[in-house]
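Worked example 2:
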Amino acid sequence: MTFQAYIDTIKAKTGMDPGDFQKIAAEKGLLAGDIKAGPIQKWLKDDYDLGPGHSMALISVFRETLLPQPSKEEAIDRFFLGPKAVWQLTWDELMSKVMKFGTGVALQPTDTYIGIVRAGKKFAIVATTATRMDVGLKLKGEPVTDRLAASGNWNAMCTHRVQLFDGAELDDQLLGWLREAYDRVG
């Protein structure tokens, strides 16, 4: 279900839009500080019979409208803090090459991954742990190999994923797949 579909379903079920819920949540004191999901989910379940997906859609709206949003650069910098810092140089090298593919390449950082888009269409994502960098690719119809694995339930947007355990694994083969994904969304 898309984000907008969650919001539309909430409106159809309750007759209320996110602004209505935000006002009530504020009156209940649920929007103070860093906006904790647990108490808000309980309230929305108890009072409106909204499930976790619908609740998280509203919480996302609350956070976006009430909490200061970092710039893209700040969000990307945060992405590589702590144990994930080992992937900063690999990321920088990857992006220096991807940005040369052509015009329209942009980044969409989230809390869990960085989306790579061309003219607003996502063609790849990058996620990291302390020990691995995952590059998700949108390559429908491309055969699965030992290296170009099926993404499975790792990320619904991607059809394939390449796992890097060392920065040296950023090679021409991976860049070729990224280029193919970029070309396909063009």
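The chain has a mean pLDDT of 93. Helices lie at 3-14, 18-27, 37-48, 52-66, 72-79, 88-98, 172-185.
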